[in-house]
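Tokens for chain A. Residues wanted.
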């Protein structure tokens, strides 16, 4: 156990200075002791006046998230999304279903 750990009761402690843009550098020994790796996020929470706690949040990859089996035809989904976008960008004059419109026109022609 080194001198620093003797003073802190075996826990790792570090003093760091705040740089000009609010940045701090965590010393390598401190990062190693806490298992902090590149890409991890540190959550700071104020606990009192001039006091805060820090929680290490490990970086997560897609492999960390659960997987789901989804029975969806992505080509149909893409087609519907494309149609929805086209309808918003180039709205039709008549928003009725084209099949309904064709049936209405056919009925009107028969009556005439």
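Reply:
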């Amino acid at each position: 156990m080194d001198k620093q750990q003797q003073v802190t009761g075996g826990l790792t402690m570090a003093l760091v200075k705040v740089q000009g843009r609010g940045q701090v550098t965590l010393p390598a020994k401190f990062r190693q002791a806490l298992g902090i790796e590149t890409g991890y996020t540190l959550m700071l929470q104020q606990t009192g006046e001039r006091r805060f706690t820090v929680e290490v949040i490990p970086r997560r990859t897609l492999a960390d998230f659960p997987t789901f089996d989804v029975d969806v035809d992505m080509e149909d989904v893409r087609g519907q999304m494309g149609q929805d976008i086209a309808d918003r960008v180039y709205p039709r004059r008549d928003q009725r279903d084209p099949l309904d419109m064709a049936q209405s026109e056919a009925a009107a022609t028969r009556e005439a």
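The radius of gyration is 31 Å. The longest strand covers residues 41-48.
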